[in-house]
């Protein structure tokens, strides 16, 4: 019955318009942009801004936990199993990278899929090390006492170095989006806002992630982070 409903919805949709990203995935994306930006700015300001740096770090960690779980139960295009491809698929796509032909992938292509994994992992390292880090002045991560000063200093160095890796990945991500927009004539920005995109060939109707399920997962992720830092 659910499949029939999806097919009916797809038929009723505007020709050439297909659903790509569910609402929870889009909210995750833009909230992550906001809180990572806040973390970067407040971390570089230092001083009293470090309190906001910690809070934004907790928000980032909550979002990451949510996205990892959502990668298994979310909408079709949001699931890791749908966009994380093996070396052969990545290699085949790489040979067509400079082609202006329309991509056969509705959501993330094989290269883009692995860039998403890289971004999630580096942000997870950043949020994780931040729990133990210190600034040698007044700020200590909530789990500082579990490891002591020496280990905290080591994790702080990783936290600092990993920031540069995140900046590099963000730059590559933005450049890739602009490359697809101006060279390959494929708009990747609008679908992450509206959830839909133009599609020229037949495509399966993505299984939309249920918003209430996402809300429960997000709530549990927030509770887990709260209990962790407390």
Residue share in helices? 55-70%
Structural class: mainly alpha
Distance between the termini: 45 Å
CATH class type: Mainly Alpha
Beta-strand level of the residues, as a percent range? under 5%
* SS element count, helices: 9
Please identify which CATH superfamily we are dealing with. Answer: Transmembrane di-heme cytochromes, Chain C
* H/E series: HEHHHHHHHEH
Chain-averaged pLDDT: 89
The whole-angstrom Rg is 20 Å
Low-confidence stretches: 1-14
Number of strands: 2
Tell me the number of structural domains: 1
CATH architectural grouping: Up-down Bundle
Describe this structure in words.
There is one protein chain. The protein has a single domain (19-98, 106-229), classed as Fumarate Reductase Cytochrome B subunit. It is globular and about 55 Å long. A two-stranded antiparallel sheet has the order 1-2. The chain is mainly alpha-helical. It contains 9 helices and 2 strands; from the N terminus they run αβαααααααβα. 67% of the residues lie in helices and 3% in strands.
Furnish the topology, listing elements before pairings.
Blueprint: H1 2-12, E1 17-19, H2 23-45, H3 50-73, H4 80-83, H5 87-94, H6 110-130, H7 144-182, H8 189-194, E2 196-198, H9 211-229
Nutshell version of this structure?
By secondary structure, this protein is mainly α.
Notable features of this structure?
single chain; 230 residues; mainly alpha; Fumarate Reductase Cytochrome B subunit; two-stranded antiparallel ribbon; 3% strand
